[in-house]
């Protein structure tokens, strides 16, 4: 990657040093704006597994941006594919049809997808895709003469997106409450949080209560009113909730018994993150609808996709006088530039077998995370592939949490030390690009070890 010349670096640094008063107040971001203006982080460039901010500080990307940069930053195959498509055609008239690149990407996804997932609906981002899945499930049943089947079952502590429907399906109180009342027809159940079982069970004899109780919920609501269940195979926002192996097969059986569609939200889980191309492959369960985003384009253009099994897709064929097809559309769906990026990402993943690398490097990373138990604050390590999390506890024997929490402090210290992670008050997640190598995995572990040690020392604790 070429290095910016001295003048451009000087200009960027000057902008960074003056924008607090003049410019930063003009932009909404995901964090509290007051905090951002006080201590702004402005990334300037990226290459491989690293970012550099406008001050020139280097960061190891332990989060793939936000589980997006699966094939690394500055990937020339993807960049060249995007450039070539820009020269060919940047935008197609989406109201009147599609374009060859979108058709090609749809076929490629169908070729690599598990089971009989056989049709694709494109979108620009994950929220649009999960929203489309909810709509498709409801319209599917409507077209089958079952218009009363509209309810969607999802899980507490889940996150499915920011649009009204996807937010209604989400189960994070802090993110939902400010926008309530939300859409009707959404029912929440407890997630398979085995480390902190909401039912007080032990996995050895629990009977997978978190899964079996969903059938009871369907029966109590009335099977003729439930359209779909939507889950992330491995839940993210609850702290990398990796279910017991029986959980997702059980959901598949329950859905089949009650004619309920099973939706996998693989916006984060998909595209090699769990060590297989799809989390559906990792768990050996084929959903009726599968949502993709984030890593599908590697971060080079906004693209997401909803994949449907054949029996679902077939319901949308017919006479337009009585069957309008799937009533859903977005301006940038199937954008040729974004789809060119998606095709190049898939080629890169297959050619370099990045799924296998994710599995191998994930095992190495898990070993390092387990080694953090020496500090005496690791309660649980969970996840699959390069999608791993650590829960911090004050007492591993009792699972007592820190008060005040320590997780945010550890994550921020890691950021100060040059490592991007995903952190919450009680847990931290790591999800680096699938191109990562062993020495970079070791560097992540070294920084985390240092961050934990420093935070404990500041609180007057000593590692075990």
Task: Provide an overview of this structure.
By secondary structure, the protein is an alpha/beta fold. It folds into 2 domains: about 40-75 and about 355-460, Aspartate Aminotransferase, domain 1, CATH 3.90.1150.10; about 75-350, Type I PLP-dependent aspartate aminotransferase-like (Major domain) (Aspartate Aminotransferase, domain 2, 3-Layer(aba) Sandwich), CATH 3.40.640. Helices cover about 40% and strands about 15% of the residues. It is built from 16 helices and 15 strands. The chain has helices at about 5-20, 35-40, 65, 75-90, 100-110, 125-145, 165-170, 175, 210-220, 245-260, 280-285, 310-315, 335-350, 355-370, 405-415, 440-460, and strands spanning about 45, 50-55, 60, 115-125, 150-155, 185-190, 225-230, 260-265, 290, 305-310, 380-385, 385-390, 420, 420-425, 425-430. Helix 10 links the parallel strand 7 and strand 8. The chain is globular, with a radius of gyration of 23 Å. The chain starts with 5 loop residues before the first helix and ends in a 6-residue tail after the last helix. The mean pLDDT is about 90.
Blueprint of the fold:
Layout: H1 6-22, H2 33-38, E1 43-47, E2 50-53, E3 58-61, H3 64-67, H4 76-88, H5 100-112, E4 117-123, H6 126-143, E5 151-155, H7 164-169, H8 173-176, E6 186-189, H9 209-221, E7 226-231, H10 247-258, E8 261-265, H11 279-283, E9 289-292, E10 304-309, H12 310-314, H13 336-351, H14 354-371, E11 378-384, E12 387-392, H15 407-416, E13 419-420, E14 422-423, E15 427-430, H16 438-458
Parallel strand pairs: 3-13, 5-6, 5-7, 7-8, 8-9
Antiparallel strand pairs: 1-2, 2-3, 4-10, 9-10, 11-12, 12-15, 14-15
Helix pairs in contact: 4-13, 5-13, 9-10, 14-16, 15-16
